[in-house]
Each structure stands twice: as structure tokens, then as C-alpha cells.
Amino acid sequence: xxxxxxxxxxxxxxxxxxxxxxxxxxxxxxxxxxPPSRGISVKTDNTIxxxxxxRARVESGERNDGSITSANSWDGxxxxxxxxxxxxxxxxxxxxxxxxxxxxxxxxxxxxDGPNKLDGAGTVSIGxxxxxxxxxxxxxxxxxxxALSYGTLDFIEGAVITAVILLNIILGFIQDFRxxxxxxxLLSLAAPSSHVIRHxxxxxxxxxxxxxxxxxxxxxxxxxxxxxxxxESMNLEIEEALLTGESLPASKNAEAVLNTGxxxxxxxxxxxxxxxTTVTRGRGTGIVVxxxxxxxxxxxxxxLRGDKPEAKDSNPLxxxxxxxxxxxxxxxxxxxxxxxxxxxxxxILLFSLAVLLAIIVFSANKWNLDNEVVLYGICxxxxxxxxxxxAVTTITIAAGVKAMAQGNVVIRRMAALEAIGGVTNIxxxxxxxxxxxxxxxxxxxxxDLGILSIKDVTNILDPNDGSLEVGNAPFNINQTSASHNxxxxxxxxxxxxxxxxASVSRTSPVAQCSSEKHPxxxxxxxxxxxxxxxxxxxxxxxxxxxxxxxxxxxLTSEMEHQFDSSLKRMSVAYKSQTTGDVEVYxxxxxxxxxxxxxxxxxxxxxxxxxxxxxxxxxLRVLCIASKRIAPENERNLLDRRFMESNLxxxxxxxxxxxxxxxxxxxxxxxxxxxxAVHMLTGDHLNTATAIAQKVGILKSDQxxxxxxxxxxxxxxxxxxxxxxxxxxxxxxxxxxxxxxVRMVDALRRRKAFCVMTGDGVxxxxxxxxxxxxxxxxxxxxxxxxDAADMVLTDxxxxxxxxxxxxxxxLFDNIQKFLLHLLISNIAQVILLLIALAFRDTNGNSVFPxxxxxxxxxxxxxxxxxxxxxxxxEAQADIMIRQPRDLNVGVFxxxxxxxxxxxxxxxxxxxxxxxxxxxxxxxxxxxxxNCNEEWNESCDVVFRARATVFGVLSILxxxxxxxxxxxxxxxxxxxxxxxxxxxxNFKALTYNRFLLWAVVxxxxxxxPVIYIxxxxxxxxxxxxxxxxxxxxxxxxxxxxxxxxxxxAIKRRFRVWSGMGQTLSIREEV
Length: 1068
Hints:
Layout: E1 3-5, E2 40-42, E3 48-50, H1 52-60, H2 86-92, H3 103-113, H4 126-134, H5 137-151, H6 155-187, E4 193-198, E5 201-206, E6 215-219, E7 227-239, H7 241-244, E8 250-251, E9 272-273, E10 278-290, H8 301-304, H9 316-332, H10 338-364, H11 371-383, H12 389-406, E11 409-411, H13 414-419, E12 425-428, E13 440-446, E14 450-455, E15 467-470, E16 473-474, H14 483-498, E17 503-506, E18 524-527, H15 530-540, H16 546-550, E19 555-564, E20 569-576, E21 582-589, H17 590-593, H18 601-616, E22 620-629, H19 640-643, E23 648-656, H20 663-672, E24 676-680, H21 685-694, E25 708-710, H22 711-716, H23 719-723, E26 731-733, H24 737-749, E27 754-758, H25 764-769, E28 772-776, H26 782-787, E29 790-792, H27 797-834, H28 851-870, H29 893-921, H30 939-962, H31 983-989, H32 992-1010, H33 1014-1018, H34 1027-1051, H35 1064-1067
Parallel strand pairs: 12-24, 12-27, 24-26, 25-26, 27-28, 28-29
Antiparallel strand pairs: 1-18, 2-3, 4-5, 4-6, 6-10, 7-8, 7-9, 7-10, 11-29, 13-14, 13-23, 14-15, 15-16, 17-18, 19-20, 20-21, 21-22, 22-23
Helix pairs in contact: 4-6, 5-6, 5-10, 5-11, 6-12, 6-28, 10-11, 11-28, 12-27, 12-28, 14-15, 18-21, 20-27, 27-28, 27-29, 27-30, 28-30, 28-32, 29-30, 29-34, 30-32, 30-34
């Protein structure tokens, strides 16, 4: 991967992309450059030309070492790649391992072979989306109502209900399909990526764009993206349980060539790496020999698609019952996220209520089921169903997913979208999340020289940028007087350069494989971990970079023990070809290096204050050490304990990683929102404390004895001892993956709802254990991303806070449109049940609202209003509330009380308007057979229905504005955001979709009431005049009631009224 960094004044050019890592230090080096294979020359398009001698050797099967492979020539199939030397494979595929394919050639091969993905993976199933539209109890009620309408020969009503069902299914399908496609496209942002060499540069590309012949780099935590013939390996181990069933990782050896033919088992192919397996240790590079369905994992594609194999029951009846149960769950919508399941259960409850209400209607008419009674039953059943609930919910959640993506958060599991708004604790990494992840070596200390400072750095990748000071005096490496100091610095500079797998170089029009130093102009490029990049830049300041040291070929790498998150150190060994001596270099955390140093107690006691002094400045302190081994002891290098013992201290390096500018404000937002932020870092205690204070996590006036702890001290405590602590640590230093898991468990025992961030392989258990696991998109390993519920595409703590805010907004909006829809349904049910008492001359109940009026209100008027509420922006007070109780869910007591009060009052007002028209001006004339069609006796009833229709429509339009906030007055909705004389007008109109939904809903009411024939034949009402006075009188009564209830909530600080004031003057 290439890091470009232009020379800017602030030194913060983007992007800075880092290779995957296990923890704070790099554990996976890039593969060093090697000379091209003999007989191979690179053409201008990065394919290779083969001389006649090499071609003859390839065709005959001769390897570079003179041996012969088991076949005369490779046929190009992945199944036989393990039987051939890697050079022969590269030659056959026409690619140079050092330069990779050209972009042009890669594009051609991608067009030829297709994307590197399994057939059907990542696609949207049209059948499944369509099934979701019909498999819910709300649609079932409409289907039953449609059947009854046709059964009673009411073809107009049946046709309209049919149209409503089809409209609901079509609109729902379109929106759901779009949402699914959006989810797939967003998930691709968090899809596995690959480090490949193309056109002589290391790049990051999506795994699905890999082609046969690509050169892929592997490191710990990476999921192998395609089938590879390994070219190089260093301590490489890969977990292949997916293919072999073996629980232990398999050791790999790129140099091996198997002569067992194509019949060798997958587990025995130690020179191959297969798609879908995971690198657990070491590093390597390989050439792609198969992609997509041609890989080994293509044969078990169902495993990669997430279909877990289920144990088959031997009892056929049990298998049938399980299958039947699964089918019923799908039909009833009882699969999906917790909120989706809860809403489906609510729909089932409404379905049961609809059946019960129909039974009540039939019972009230003594089960004399003539057409009039059946129609009334249909009317009541339709009234209780919020037909647009599923569609509005789907659209709102899809909009939430998209908004999260725009805020640099990719949702991998939908349940996390619903849950993130309720978090109470956030456990965050420091490096790259709270800080910028742009390391610069700020201070260097050696026993002989003291402290050397690097100041005024504006470009962290430029070795010539900034100035040097020793003891507050300028230090110029080009002056003759500096030679003595440079001699004293040489050992530590050698160590930081060689015990390092990063590379830093000046980019040029045609980048070379070597890291030859260029003049200090143009852009710099780097590959590796930020810590190691900073150390490499430090060495290059003194013309002592890794490439400078290895250029002559006198040093060769003999052994490396990679960074271990539990040991917190790494070491390498280089052999001098001149003397035969082996030099061991090690670096790591101070507590990891000091025990393996050859130091006296007095020397150690003198060293500790220096380390703590550097750490207290917010610097990350690394100990650098080395030792020389005689040639006869070289065989002992395999023993890590031997290699990392009796080392000589060379010095300390203090690295500075500045906090992100936005972190402090984000932490303050969390504090205001009642969310506790914990820093879990691998840094020194003093370093972690200093950074925590700078970003606002740690406040001196709120510290307790356990606010800051070392992970070792925390891990020594039993669960019972942790539970007796008054509060959990705010800062945990020198944190290990085990510490993170224990922290999550401790929070769970305290009934907290926690977020955990992570990037390494060992973070996966903590990410799984947390309520919401968030992986880093830039620095995170594929294993961490797979374990997480969300992925941050910018690795920024502020993005987590934005996700919390978006989660709260989404929850609020779902509650708003639920309340709005249910108010309408409750009003209709109350109206129709009480209206059973209104009987015509034949003794039949006269419904005050026809079934089609109800469908119009529910599908046309309410649906668009509900959609507008789903698009509401976050309220001004959204991040100053305490986290909601996730155990309660969306149906809070406030929502339940509000819907019952508002719905009942709206139903009563509708009933009053019906009574006024029928029994006031109409003298109680309810006509004959007015439920079926218009006749002269139905004039009063039809006018009364139109009045009720107008009342209900207008009340719902105003309700859409009233429920924008559950406790603030309609006349003072958002004083924090909108101020001035017309502040309330702005608060009502800023949501343009909702505004036009209200306007359209108001205007369309008049054609429905006044268009001849349509009004009497379809809707069973007729034009009205003076009755509009009744409509607006009911509107005033309704608004007065709602405002009075909101004032009570504010006055007594109930639910959302907590923190609100009673008077408008006080609020303004």
C-alpha cells in the first residue's frame, strides 16, 4: 500500500494508509525486493519476456536449482501449482514477481476472467425481497378484506383494496430492493482488500478485482483473497480449518515443491495459500493462480455465504416440523433484526385485534351476516391496520444506513444500527482513533549523548524536514563537529532502521523497487505501520536508513521474531558477510525490553525516571536494544528466549501522535449524552494519562483511585473485586486483548451497553463480546472487520459519536411515525366501535367512515406524512439526553400513553362531528342501506361521513407537526436551532418532504370530497358546506388538548418533558 504525503504547512496531507497490524507496533513487514529471476526480462507493460534457455527449462520442467518437477510442464490450473517451482508459475503467467502486472494487463485479465467472487455472493434476491412484501400479517388482513368485499359483490371496494395491496407490494418492493442494493454497495466499502504489487508499486485494491497473475502480500490477520502459489514466506502460518478441518494453523514454506502430483491433500500443500483462509502468523507473498469459483473455496461456497451447516435430524417428522416452523416465521416476518421482529410481532397483535373487532361487530349484530354487517366488519378490521408501517420502516432504516455511510460508518449487521443509539459506554483505542495516527519521532535518548529533539516538523515523511537540537543547542549533521555525536548515535540508528519493516522513499515518475533516496523535492511515499515509518524517517535523517545499510549487500537477514501483542516486543537478526558475526536488534515497550537487558539495578533505577519523563509529555516510548552473537551461536537464533536475552540498551525513542482536532468535542458530546468514554491502549501509563487529559476523557477533579490503571493490575483482579469497584477504569494502559474482553464482561455485569473498537486479530473476541463491535477500516485486519458489527472507514473516534447520534435520530423518527400511524388507527377503531350504536331503519349499524375512506387516510394521507417524519433531522437536544433503555424497545411508556390519549381524543372528536351533523342538522336520519350505496335517504349520513373524513384528515396533518417533538409545544418546536420572529415557521418548514406532504394532504382532501360520482360511489360521502366549521372547531379542540398534555409533561418533567420548560418565554 502506498502512502502519499505532499509537503504541506500543517503536515496533514491525506490519505495516510497503513498496513494491517496486530497491535500498536508493526508485526508484518513488506516483502523485500529481490533481483529478477535469471532468463527473465521485464517488458514495458510489466509482463515478462523469457529467453530461449529459460523457455526450454520451463517447458521441460527444470527448476532453478536444476531439479525436475513431477510433470513436463504446468497446465495453468491451480490444482497443480504446488508441484512446480514458483518461478515457473510466474513465467507461465507472464508476470515478474518484483514488479507485478501493469494496470492495463490487470484490466484485460479482469475482463477475461471476471471478478474474484463467488457466484451469487453479494447479490440481492428478488424473490426474497418480494416474499417480504407479502409475508406479513398486515397484508394478510387486507387480503381477507379484499376477499370479503368480492364475496359480498362489492366489486368497487374489492378492486380498490386490490389496488391498495398491489400498490403496497410494488412500492414496498421497490424501496426494499433499493435498500438491499444500497446495503450491498455499502458493505463493499468494508469488503476485504488486498495488498498487491502492480506497476512496480504496492497498492490496496478490493479483493474482488484481483486477477490471475497478481502478486499479493500477506500479513497476520489477513484473509487470503484468492488461491496463491507462495513466492516467499517468513514464519508463515495459515488457519485452513475452512477447507481441511484442522484446528491448528498450517506452517507454510514457499521454497517447497511437492512431487506428489495433483492428488496431494489441501493440508499437505505447504507452498499454497487458499482463498478464505486466515493468516495467523508471519508474512509472505504469493502469485494468484485462481480466482472466484475456480478457487478451492468455490467448491464450498455455501460456507462463505454464511450458510452454517445444520445437523440433520434423523426423524423425518422433526425435519418437516422444523422446516414448517421456519416457513411460518418467514411468512409472519419473525426473522430479521430485533426491531423488525418486534414490529412483526406488533403486526400479529394488530391482526389478532382486527379479528377480535370483526367478531365484536358480528356479535353486536347477532351473527346475522348480511352484506351490511360484513362490510362493517371489514371496515373495522381495515381501520386497525397501519397499512404503510412496513414500507415506511424499511425506507427509514435504509435512509439511516445511507446517512451512517456518509458519516464514515459502514453497517455490517443491521441490528447494530438499531442498538448504537442506546450505548452507555464506549471503549476506544488511542492510536489512530483518538489520535491522528501520524507518528513522528519527537525525542531520542542515548546513555552517552542524552536527549536529542526533533522540532518544527511539518511533513512527517520527509527526513530533511524540521530541525535537530541536543541540549537546547542546534545540531547539524553536516558539520565536522557533529561527527563524534553521530558515532554515538550510530548503534541506535542501526537498530531502528534494521528492526523495522517500513519503507520510506521519494516518489518518482517510474518508481523503482529499491528505496534509493531522492532529492528533497516532490512527494514522499511510505509503506508500513505509522510507528515504524516514524522510526525509519528518524534513521534516514542521519543518512542511516535501512536501504542505505543493506545497499552493499554485506548484511543479510537471518531471523526475525515478529511483534507479539502479549510480549509487546519484536527482534531481528542480521549477519555480516564480512565478519560472520550476527547482530540482534530489538525494540518494544519499556516493560517488555527492560527485563531482557543486561542492566544492573542501579542502571535500571536511573532509566525509569527518564522513561516516565518522556511518557508524561504524551510521548510513546520505545526501548531500543541490541547484542552481537558469535557465528557458532547462530543456530540458537530459532530460540526466541536466547535471541531476546542479555541485550545492551542503545537508547529510547519518544514518538508523538497528536490527538485529532475533533476528538475533544466528540468526547464532550459523549459526556453530555450520558456516555462514558474509556481509553484502552497499549501505551505507557503516563503517555495514556497525558493524552486522555488532552482529549477530555480524564478530568483531574473527577479522578478516583481506579480511574487510571495498568492492564496487569486490572487483570489480576477477580470478577468479584472488579464488581466492587465504584467505577470502572477510564484509562487502561498496556492493554492486552484479554483485558479488553474482561472490560466488556465487567460492563455487561453492570448492565451497561458498550461499544468496543479494535483493529487486530486478537481484538476479535472483544468485538464479538461487545454489544456493538466497531473495527477500523484503514488499520483493521480482515479478521477484526469480520467480527465487528460496524466498520469505521476513517478510523476516527468522532465518527463513532456521529453514529450514536444517527442511531438516536433513527430511533426518534421511528417512534414519531409509529405514534402518528397508531393515533390514526386508534381514532378509527374508537369511532367505529362506538358507532355500532348508530342503526338505520333496518336495524343495521351505519359506519361513520367507509372502508375506502379509511384506506385513503391510512395509505395516502398518513403514509407520506410518516415518511416525512422518518426523514426528520436530529433534534437539538438529542445528545444531551441520557441513553435510552434498550430493554424497553421502541414502544416506550411515553409512546403508549401519547398514542392512547391523542388517538382516543381524535376518535371522540370524529364521533362528535358525526353526531353534530346527523343529530343536529339531520334530525337523526340515518337512512336505509347507506353502507352499500347512495340513495335519497342517505343525504345526511353521506354529509356526516364527509365531515368525519375531513376532521380525521386535518387532525392527522396537524399531528404530523405535533409529534416532531413529544413534549415541546407546536408553537415553539426548536428554539435552540431557530430564533427570531419567524422561528416557529422555520421549524415547521425546514423538513421540505414533510411540509409538502402536509400541503398535498390538505389540498387532496377537497377533490376526494367534491368530485361528483367518485365521492358518492367510491367513498360513500358527498360534498359539504357549513360542516367545515365543525372540522376546524374539532381542530382547535384537538390542538388545545395535545398542547395541554405536553405542558403537563414539561411541568412535571415526565419522560421527554424532563429538562424542558413550561413557558415559551423561558424556552426562548
